[in-house]
C-alpha cells in the first residue's frame, strides 16, 4: 500500500511505511515470541464508599480479571499508604464520593508524582466541573465514566485494559528487555473507545519517558481527532455539510453517529489502529472502511482563517502537531511517526525535589574508582559509561535511575569509575540527606530495595555470561 507524505504538501511519492498485517488484540514484543493471553493482575484498589457502585465494580472486575477481588479503600490514610507501598497498576476512583475527600487524596498524590505509576478510571455523578476535569489531566486517566453509563462503559474500559495491559503497566520490563512493541486495536464505531485507546498509548509513552508532557498532550489530541474522523466521516460517511446541519439543532454529534449505526452495514465497520514503538520513535496508522476523501484539498488548503472552535479542522491541526501526516491514495488510511526524546526523565521522585543539580559535560568524570562514596546520584538526563581498571563494564541511562547506590549504602569505596557520555544532569544527594528522606518517606526504602534486587539480578546474568 503506497502512503503519500503531506509535509509541506510536497508532490506525492511512495513511502516505505506500511500497515502491519493482521489485527492483534494484545501487543506483541519483538523478539520475545510471547503472546499475552492470560492476565494476572495485582489487586485493584477502589476508592469509594458507595455500596451500589462498589457492588457493580466488584462484579465487572471479577469478570474481566479472572475472579480477582478489588480492594475497597474508604479512608484517606489507607488510600495513601496503599498507593505508596503497593504502586498499583490500576486505581478506580469514585470522583463524586461524598464521604472521601477525593480532591485531597489527589492533591497528596500530586506532591509525589512517583506514585502515579499506573492508570486511573474515574467514575462521577452528573457532569464534571470543567475546572476539575482540567485538573484530572495531570494524572494518567484512562477513562472518565458518568455513573449513569457505568454498566455499559466500565466493562468496556476494563476489557480494553485487560487486552492491552502490557503497554500500560510493564514499561520497565519493556525498556530493559525489548527493542520494539507492535500491536493493533480493532475499534467499533463507538466514540467512547477512542479516548480509552488514545489515553493508553499516550500515557505509556509519557511514563516510559519517550515523550514529554507537551508532546503527550499534542499526540493525544491528534489521535482523538484522527480516530474520530475515521468513525465519523470514514465509516459513517457523515459529510461536513451534514454535520454542520445536525449541529445547528443538536449539541451532540454522538447522537448522529448512533443514528448512522442503526444501519447494519455501517455498524459492522471497524477502525484499525496500529502502533509500532521502538526505542527512538513511535509510528501509528489509522485505517477505516470508508471510501476515503480528497486529503490533498484539506491539507493543502491555503486558507489561513482556521477557527478551531468550529469543526472541520482536525486533520490540519493533527498535521501541524505531528509534523506531517501520510495518507494512502484513497484517503481512508493515515499514518505518522514521532521521534522520542533521548535520555530524559519526565518525573523526579518527590523526595528528591530541591536536591542540588549537577551538570556534566562529555568525558567529565562523575566519580572515580576507590574514592569515598559520600554521595548518591539520581539520573535526570544523559548516558554514563562505567569502567573498572580500564575495562568497560556497563552503560547507565535514566532507566537505571541511580548512580553509585551500592557502595553508597554499604559504606564501601567506589568500585568503578563513571564518566558522562555527552551532556548529562544528576541530582547529588548526601548520605545524611538520604537517610532523612527515607525516614520521612519509608516507602522509598522499599522501592530502593526492589531496584537493588533488579541490579543484582542483572549482575548475576552478566557474570553467568562471562
TrEMBL record:
<feature type="domain" description="Cyclic nucleotide-binding">
    <location>
        <begin position="351"/>
        <end position="438"/>
    </location>
</feature>
<protein>
    <recommendedName>
        <fullName>Cyclic nucleotide-binding domain-containing protein</fullName>
    </recommendedName>
</protein>
<dbReference type="GO" id="GO:0005829">
    <property type="term" value="C:cytosol"/>
</dbReference>
<dbReference type="Pfam" id="PF00027">
    <property type="entry name" value="cNMP_binding"/>
</dbReference>
<dbReference type="Pfam" id="PF13581">
    <property type="entry name" value="HATPase_c_2"/>
</dbReference>
<dbReference type="InterPro" id="IPR000595">
    <property type="entry name" value="cNMP-bd_dom"/>
</dbReference>
<dbReference type="InterPro" id="IPR014710">
    <property type="entry name" value="RmlC-like_jellyroll"/>
</dbReference>
<dbReference type="InterPro" id="IPR018490">
    <property type="entry name" value="cNMP-bd_dom_sf"/>
</dbReference>
<dbReference type="InterPro" id="IPR050397">
    <property type="entry name" value="Env_Response_Regulators"/>
</dbReference>
<dbReference type="InterPro" id="IPR036890">
    <property type="entry name" value="HATPase_C_sf"/>
</dbReference>
<dbReference type="GO" id="GO:0003700">
    <property type="term" value="F:DNA-binding transcription factor activity"/>
</dbReference>
<dbReference type="InterPro" id="IPR003594">
    <property type="entry name" value="HATPase_dom"/>
</dbReference>
Amino acid at each position: 500500500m503506497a502512503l503519500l507524505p503531506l509535509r509541506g504538501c510536497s508532490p506525492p511519492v511512495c513511502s516505505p511505511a506500511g500497515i502491519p498485517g493482521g489485527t492483534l488484540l494484545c501487543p506483541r514484543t519483538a523478539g520475545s515470541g510471547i503472546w499475552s493471553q492470560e492476565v494476572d493482575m495485582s489487586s485493584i484498589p477502589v476508592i469509594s464508599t458507595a455500596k451500589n457502585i462498589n457492588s457493580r465494580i466488584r462484579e465487572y472486575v471479577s469478570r474481566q480479571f479472572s475472579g480477582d477481588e478489588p480492594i475497597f479503600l474508604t479512608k484517606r490514610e489507607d488510600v495513601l499508604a496503599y498507593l505508596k507501598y503497593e504502586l498499583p497498576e490500576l486505581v478506580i476512583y469514585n470522583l463524586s464520593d461524598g464521604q472521601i475527600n477525593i480532591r485531597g487524596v489527589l492533591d497528596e498524590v500530586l506532591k509525589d508524582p512517583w506514585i502515579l505509576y499506573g492508570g486511573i478510571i474515574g467514575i462521577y455523578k452528573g457532569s464534571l466541573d470543567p475546572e476539575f476535569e482540567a485538573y484530572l489531566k495531570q494524572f494518567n486517566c484512562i477513562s472518565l465514566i458518568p455513573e449513569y453509563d457505568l454498566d455499559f462503559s466500565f466493562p468496556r474500559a476494563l476489557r480494553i485494559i485487560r487486552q492491552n495491559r502490557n503497554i500500560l503497566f510493564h514499561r520497565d520490563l519493556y525498556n530493559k528487555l525489548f527493542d520494539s512493541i507492535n500491536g493493533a486495536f480493532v475499534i467499533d464505531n463507538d466514540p467512547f473507545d477512542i479516548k480509552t485507546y488514545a489515553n493508553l498509548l499516550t500515557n505509556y509513552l509519557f511514563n516510559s519517558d519517550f515523550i514529554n508532557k507537551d508532546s503527550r498532550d499534542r499526540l493525544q489530541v491528534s489521535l482523538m481527532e484522527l480516530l474520530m474522523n475515521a468513525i465519523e466521516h470514514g465509516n459513517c460517511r457523515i459529510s461536513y455539510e451534514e454535520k454542520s446541519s445536525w449541529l445547528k439543532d443538536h449539541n451532540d454529534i454522538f447522537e448522529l453517529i448512533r443514528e448512522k449505526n442503526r444501519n447494519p452495514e455501517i455498524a459492522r465497520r471497524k477502525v484499525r489502529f496500529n502502533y509500532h514503538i521502538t526505542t527512538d520513535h513511535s509510528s501509528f496508522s489509522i485505517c477505516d472502511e470508508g471510501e476515503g476523501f480528497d486529503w490533498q484539498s484539506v491539507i493543502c488548503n491555503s486558507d489561513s482563517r482556521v477557527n478551531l472552535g468550529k469543526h472541520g479542522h482536525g486533520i490540519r491541526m493533527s498535521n501541524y502537531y505531528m509534523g506531517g501526516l501520510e495518507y494512502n491514495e484513497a484517503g481512508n488510511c493515515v499514518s505518522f511517526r514521532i521521534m522520542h526524546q533521548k535520555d530524559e526523565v519526565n518525573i523526579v521522585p518527590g523526595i528528591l525535589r530541591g536536591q542540588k543539580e549537577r551538570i556534566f559535560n562529555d568525558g567529565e568524570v562523575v566519580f572515580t574508582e576507590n574514592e569515598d562514596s559520600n554521595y548518591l546520584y539520581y539520573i535526570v538526563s544523559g548516558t554514563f559509561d562505567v569502567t573498572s581498571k580500564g575495562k568497560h563494564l556497563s552503560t547507565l541511562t535514566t532507566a537505571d535511575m541511580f548512580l553509585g547506590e551500592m557502595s553508597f549504602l554499604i559504606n564501601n569505596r567506589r568500585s568503578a569509575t563513571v564518566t558522562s557520555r555527552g551532556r548529562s544532569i544528576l541530582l547529588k544527594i548526601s548520605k545524611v540527606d538520604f537517610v532523612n528522606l527515607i525516614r520521612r518517606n519509608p516507602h522509598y526504602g522499599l522501592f530502593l530495595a526492589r531496584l537493588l534486587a533488579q541490579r543484582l539480578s542483572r549482575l548475576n546474568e552478566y557474570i553467568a555470561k562471562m
